[in-house]
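Why 3'-5' exonuclease? Reviewers of the renewal asked for a concrete example.
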Amino acid sequence: MTPKTEQKVYVGIGMDFETGGLDCRECACTQIALQAVRFDTWQVFDHCQAYIAPYGKADAGLPRRKVLRTRHEQAKEAGVVPMKYEQTALDYSAITMEMLRTQGVDMKTAAGEIIAFAKRSALSKGNQCKPILIGQNVTFDIGFLQQLMNYAGLVAEFEKTFAGTKDYYGNFQPHYIDTLTVGRLAFAADPEVTSYKLELIASRLGVELNDAHDAAADVTATLDILGIYTSRLRHAGGEAITIQAKEKTRKHFKI
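Here is what the prediction returned.
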C-alpha cells in the first residue's frame, strides 16, 4: 500500500509598519501589525499588533565611514542617540510620542514576539513551509523589520524562522509577496487605473478599508485584496474566498 503523502500547509504573514519616517537606517518603528493566513483556505488564524516605545540608535552592523573625531564628539556618540520621529510621519499615522511612551512595548520585546509569532504560524515542517511575508510595498516594511532584528540581536533567529535565501553578498533576503506588484499585473492594461495606492485598489475591488494608515487596518485590507487576486487565479468567478469583517473603531492592544 502506498503511504499517504502529508498535505503541506503554506502560510503567509501579512505585515505593516508605521514608522517615524522613510529611512529605515535613521527612523524608528512606531507600530507593527501581523496577521497569519493559510494559503489553502485563506483563513486568518492568528494576529497581533503593538505600538513600539521610543528607542535609540544601536550598532546594527551597518557599514560606517572612518572619520576622525574629537574626544568631545566621541564622548557624545557614546550616549544614546534617539531615532528620528518626524512630525509629518507621526501625523500621517495619527500616532503621538505620548502614545508610544505610555502604550508602547520595548523594541527588543516586540522583535522577540515577531519571531515567536512566525514560529507558531508555521503549520507544516520543512523550509518550504516557513512563513512568507505579505505586504503593500512590502520592501519598505522589510527594511524596518531588518532594523528591529539587528537592534534586538535576533538576526540568526530571523533567518531560521522566515522563508528566504542568502544573496550573492551573503545577506539573508526574506521571501515575500508584494500586493503593489500584483496590483500592477492585474490592472496595468486598465487606463482608468493610474495609481496603485492601497486605498484606491481596495476601493476598486470592493474591499472596505477603515482607518487607513493604521497598521492593523492596512494588513487586513492587504490580505483581503490578495485574497481576491487569489480567488481570480483559482476560480473564474473569483467568489471562493471570504474577506474579513471589519469594525470602524481603531483597536490597539499590546503583543
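Residues 247-255 have pLDDT under 50 and may be disordered. This is the kind of structural detail the renewal will allow us to pursue systematically.
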